[in-house]
Protein backbone atom coordinates (compact mmCIF):
# COMPACT_ATOMS: atom_id res chain seq x y z
CA UNK A 1 0.00 0.00 0.00
CA UNK A 2 1.07 3.61 -0.24
CA UNK A 3 2.89 5.60 2.35
CA UNK A 4 -0.39 7.44 2.76
CA UNK A 5 -1.95 4.98 5.19
CA UNK A 6 -4.76 5.76 7.55
CA UNK A 7 -5.43 4.76 11.08
CA UNK A 8 -8.51 2.94 9.84
CA UNK A 9 -6.58 0.46 7.71
CA UNK A 10 -3.18 0.88 9.36
CA UNK A 11 -1.57 0.39 5.98
CA UNK A 12 -3.09 -3.06 5.62
CA UNK A 13 -5.55 -2.42 2.80
CA UNK A 14 -4.02 -4.95 0.40
CA UNK A 15 -3.76 -7.53 3.18
CA UNK A 16 -7.42 -6.91 3.97
CA UNK A 17 -8.26 -7.65 0.33
CA UNK A 18 -6.43 -10.99 0.56
CA UNK A 19 -8.33 -11.84 3.77
CA UNK A 20 -11.62 -10.87 2.12
CA UNK A 21 -10.84 -13.09 -0.88
CA UNK A 22 -10.53 -15.99 1.56
CA UNK A 23 -14.19 -15.51 2.51
CA UNK A 24 -15.34 -15.11 -1.12
CA UNK A 25 -15.61 -11.32 -1.33
CA UNK A 26 -15.14 -10.43 -4.98
CA UNK A 27 -15.73 -6.67 -5.20
CA UNK A 28 -13.30 -4.09 -3.85
CA UNK A 29 -13.02 -0.33 -3.90
CA UNK A 30 -9.79 1.42 -4.72
CA UNK A 31 -8.61 4.84 -5.73
CA UNK A 32 -6.55 5.90 -8.74
CA UNK A 33 -3.14 6.90 -7.43
CA UNK A 34 -4.51 6.77 -3.87
CA UNK A 35 -6.38 10.04 -4.31
CA UNK A 36 -9.27 10.92 -2.09
CA UNK A 37 -10.01 10.36 1.52
CA UNK A 38 -12.89 11.04 3.84
CA UNK A 39 -14.44 14.52 3.83
CA UNK A 40 -15.67 13.97 7.38
CA UNK A 41 -12.26 12.97 8.77
CA UNK A 42 -9.61 15.49 7.69
CA UNK A 43 -6.29 13.79 7.06
CA UNK A 44 -7.85 10.32 6.88
CA UNK A 45 -6.93 8.38 3.79
CA UNK A 46 -6.87 4.61 3.66
CA UNK A 47 -7.58 4.35 -0.03
CA UNK A 48 -6.09 1.31 -1.70
CA UNK A 49 -4.14 2.38 -4.77
CA UNK A 50 -5.84 0.87 -7.84
CA UNK A 51 -2.56 0.21 -9.63
CA UNK A 52 -1.15 -1.70 -6.65
CA UNK A 53 -4.38 -3.65 -6.18
CA UNK A 54 -4.52 -4.71 -9.84
CA UNK A 55 -0.87 -5.86 -9.81
CA UNK A 56 -1.44 -7.87 -6.65
CA UNK A 57 -4.62 -9.56 -7.90
CA UNK A 58 -3.19 -10.31 -11.34
CA UNK A 59 0.00 -11.70 -9.74
CA UNK A 60 -2.25 -13.99 -7.70
CA UNK A 61 -3.68 -15.30 -10.98
CA UNK A 62 -6.99 -13.45 -10.70
CA UNK A 63 -8.32 -11.80 -13.83
CA UNK A 64 -9.34 -8.22 -13.09
CA UNK A 65 -10.23 -7.12 -16.60
CA UNK A 66 -8.25 -3.93 -15.94
CA UNK A 67 -5.46 -2.94 -18.30
CA UNK A 68 -2.52 -2.10 -16.02
CA UNK A 69 -0.63 -0.47 -18.89
CA UNK A 70 -3.47 2.02 -19.37
CA UNK A 71 -3.59 2.67 -15.62
CA UNK A 72 0.10 3.51 -15.64
CA UNK A 73 -0.24 5.65 -18.77
CA UNK A 74 -3.02 7.67 -17.13
CA UNK A 75 -0.88 8.81 -14.18
CA UNK A 76 0.79 11.72 -16.02
CA UNK A 77 -2.63 12.87 -17.23
CA UNK A 78 -3.98 12.81 -13.67
CA UNK A 79 -0.92 14.68 -12.43
CA UNK A 80 -1.25 17.35 -15.12
CA UNK A 81 -4.90 17.86 -14.14
CA UNK A 82 -4.08 18.04 -10.43
CA UNK A 83 -0.83 20.01 -10.23
CA UNK A 84 0.75 19.82 -6.80
CA UNK A 85 -1.36 16.84 -5.71
CA UNK A 86 0.67 13.90 -4.48
CA UNK A 87 0.04 10.60 -6.26
CA UNK A 88 0.62 7.37 -4.36
CA UNK A 89 1.35 3.73 -5.08
CA UNK A 90 4.35 1.57 -5.77
CA UNK A 91 3.86 0.52 -9.40
CA UNK A 92 5.09 3.83 -10.84
CA UNK A 93 8.36 3.56 -8.90
CA UNK A 94 8.99 -0.18 -9.08
CA UNK A 95 7.47 -0.85 -12.50
CA UNK A 96 5.81 -4.08 -13.45
CA UNK A 97 7.39 -7.24 -12.05
CA UNK A 98 9.76 -8.94 -14.47
CA UNK A 99 7.86 -11.49 -16.52
CA UNK A 100 4.51 -10.06 -15.39
CA UNK A 101 1.63 -11.16 -17.60
CA UNK A 102 -1.96 -10.13 -17.32
CA UNK A 103 -4.15 -13.03 -16.16
TrEMBL record:
Keywords: Lyase, Metal-binding. It comes from the Bacteria. The keyword Lyase applies. Residues 1-72 form the Pyruvate carboxyltransferase domain. GO terms for biological process: ketone body biosynthetic process; L-leucine catabolic process. InterPro entries: Aldolase_TIM, HMGL, PYR_CT. Transmembrane segments: none annotated. Signal peptide: none annotated. GO terms for molecular function: hydroxymethylglutaryl-CoA lyase activity; metal ion binding. Belongs to the HMG-CoA lyase family. This is Pyruvate carboxyltransferase domain-containing protein. It comes from Rhizobium altiplani. The lineage of its organism: Bacteria, Pseudomonadati, Pseudomonadota, Alphaproteobacteria, Hyphomicrobiales.
Amino acid sequence: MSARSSASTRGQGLGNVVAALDVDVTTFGSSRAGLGGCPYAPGATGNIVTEDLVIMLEAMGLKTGIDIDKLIAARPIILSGLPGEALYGHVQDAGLPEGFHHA
